[in-house]
Amino acid sequence: MFAAISTITALTIVLWLILAWIIGVQIYNWLVGRKVSKVVENEEFKAGLRKGQVVDIRESADFEAGHILGARSMPYSQFALYENALRKDKPVYIYDQNRSLCVRIAKRL
Hints:
- 52% of the residues lie in helices and 9% in strands.
- The protein contains five helices and three strands; from the N terminus they run H-H-E-H-E-H-E-H.
- The model has no long low-confidence stretch (mean pLDDT 83).
């Protein structure tokens, strides 16, 4: 029937499967992020600032330490409470120091 495989071989296979799953999730998030969000440069941001909504999703302490003038604080941990306050007829500029949180918010919106 089946030849017995050693514990080390089985563990190696499981670890490779976990690694492949992690890499697959990262690639999927990257592809979805490219579809739902766009990184804008300073000039494009300045041009659209008056027409859009600037949302800072950093936590309150980071927001208080310094933020973009006119930005609204909507911490990522509490974003569900603020989500309905955004206007659907204006573009949303999401600011965070970590792009992965911005992509998550963009997917949600």
